[in-house]
Design a protein that fits this description.
Order of helices and strands: HHHHEHHEHEEEHEHEHEHEHHEEHEEH
Strand content: 5-15%
Largest sheet: 7 strands, mixed
Low-confidence stretches: none
Radius of gyration: 24 Å
Structural class: alpha/beta
Oligomer: single chain
Number of domains: 3
Bound molecules: pyridoxal-5'-phosphate
Mean pLDDT: 97
CATH topology of the largest domain: Aspartate Aminotransferase, domain 2
């Protein structure tokens, strides 16, 4: 394909996209294909000769589309959302068109400078204190890994990168038993090791880390000659939305001189609402590092993860590397690739700029408040359904429930719902019990969509699973 055909196909795909979104509710949310169905329709060898775009597009529709799960479907209630508000999609189209690699200020000054301002707009929106700066990463996993590496370097006097950590004893990181697996993985790949990630039990209606148990664990580790390196807290855990009580946990970190990271990958978006800031984020300004994913609940197209830093120096001391080919002359500028693990960077700030301007914070707040309200409403309806049990009460827009029966029956109901296709939900574990998770967060979801979930759950259950 040559550039003279680009405008034609670009318009065609924009029209296709608008129709796709308009007709989305008629599609099953989760792909209804069996493993191997798609691959068997693709030739085993690459084409030697050029093919026409008409043929490629026709195959896309016939082969690829049936194998897609529709993450932008308004009845997507599984996992957490990965939203793509139309204004942010348009920004992504511009970013894709320019295809700039924005690793240094000079490789696209606008990308760096818009990023700096967007970090500050979001800092204000989330009610964080003035001094926080930050960086946009691809994922919360990468931001958490950056924070854990920083914990490691800080605890070893910044010698780990240079000397390795084989003679550094046991570096310990603390978190609750409700954190996402990205915390485990960060400890694996940083060389800290799973055995040195200490999971503290949780308590209370928000499943918060037991701070007394945290203190006891740290004291025991010090007595055993281990080196506590950091604490990772969570606002909005993946399983049931667990939220740590931040202040007491920060007091422990301060007393023990530990680096702190807060994973708010999902729930961080809700903190644009002052009432949720008050309820969930008292004392948040004490954290050294905070991550939240605007691509989850806020509406920025995947991928877009913001890491705020109270002081960027420890992370820069951990990750900054400057070979000759990356040096730039003279100016005092920010080179964001020095703040992260990957060198190459996309221009992710543009979609935040489009998103915030196109909907305004008030527009985004209204969506999030509605999601929370409708999740509570549905939860009450399911509580009234014969034999159904609410296992964990709503935290923001996430709750979990069980139908009558065994763990296997929960999975059967999840599978039956997803095979039906009108809604999409996933399972989780709470303690040793399997639960059905339900979250509301897709950008276009209406109250009717959430109410339809009740109809579908009741109908499929009554038909028998
Ligand atoms: N933290 C929490 C609480 C999550 O729910 C998730 C993913 O759903 C992650 C971290 C990982 O996010 P990412 O896919 O951006 O690495």
């Amino acid at each position: 394909m040559e550039w003279n055909e680009f405008a034609h196909w670009g318009k065609h795909i924009a029209d296709w996209g608008a129709d796709y979104h308009k007709n989305m509710r008629d599609l099953p949310v989760r792909a209804q294909t069996a493993p191997g169905d798609i691959a068997m329709q693709l030739p085993a060898t690459p084409p030697d000769n050029a093919e026409a775009m008409e043929t490629i597009m026709a195959d896309f529709e016939a082969i690829v589309m049936p194998g897609m799960t529709h993450w932008q479907h308004p009845r997507f209630f599984a996992y957490f959302p990965a939203n793509a508000a139309p204004a942010s999609m348009l920004a992504e189209m511009l970013v894709t068109t320019m295809a700039a690699q924005c690793m240094l200020w000079q490789t696209s000054p606008a990308a760096t400078e818009v990023e700096g301002v967007m970090i500050d707009w979001l800092r204000q929106a989330l009610g964080l204190a003035d001094g926080f700066t930050g960086v946009i990463q691809d994922s919360a996993s990468s931001a958490t890994l950056s924070a854990v590496l920083t914990m490691r370097e800080r605890a070893t006097g910044y010698t780990g990168n240079r000397d390795g950590i084989s003679d550094k004893g046991h570096l310990r990181v603390y978190c609750s038993d409700q954190v996402h697996s990205s915390i485990d993985r960060a400890c694996w790949v940083s060389g800290i090791g799973q055995a040195n990630l200490i999971k503290i039990p949780t308590q209370g209606s928000r499943h918060a880390m037991d701070v007394q148990a945290l203190k006891t664990a740290i004291a025991a580790d010090r007595a055993a000659g281990h080196t506590p390196a950091g604490i990772i807290a969570v606002t909005g855990g993946t399983g049931v939305g667990a939220c740590d009580t931040l202040g007491p946990l920060l007091d422990v970190a301060k007393a023990e001189d530990l680096y702190t990271h807060l994973d708010a990958a999902w729930a961080g978006s809700a903190m644009i609402c002052p009432e949720f800031q008050q309820d969930f984020w008292a004392d948040v300004d004490g954290f050294d590092s905070i991550v939240f994913n605007p691509h989850k609940w806020l509406g920025a197209q995947f991928d877009c993860s913001v890491q705020f830093l109270r002081d960027a120096t420890p992370q820069l001391n951990t990750l900054k590397i400057e070979p000759e080919y990356l040096k730039t002359s003279g100016e005092s500028v920010t080179n964001y690739s020095e703040w992260t693990i990957p060198l190459g960077r996309r221009f992710r700030a543009l979609k935040i700029w489009f998103l915030l301007r196109s909907y305004g914070l008030e527009g985004l707040r209204t969506r999030i408040r509605n999601h929370v309200k409708w999740a509570h409403e549905l939860c009450e309806m399911l509580r009234g359904l014969d034999g159904f049990e609410i296992v964990t009460e709503p935290i923001l827009s996430l709750f979990s429930f069980r139908c009558p029966g065994s763990d296997a029956d929960q999975q059967k109901l999840v599978d039956a719902l997803n095979d039906d296709g009108r809604i999409y939900v996933t399972q989780g574990m709470f303690g040793d019990r399997k639960v059905i998770r339900f979250q509301v967060g897709q950008f276009d979801t209406t109250r009717d969509d959430v109410m339809m979930a009740y109809t579908v759950i009741k109908e499929i259950w009554e038909q028998g699973i």
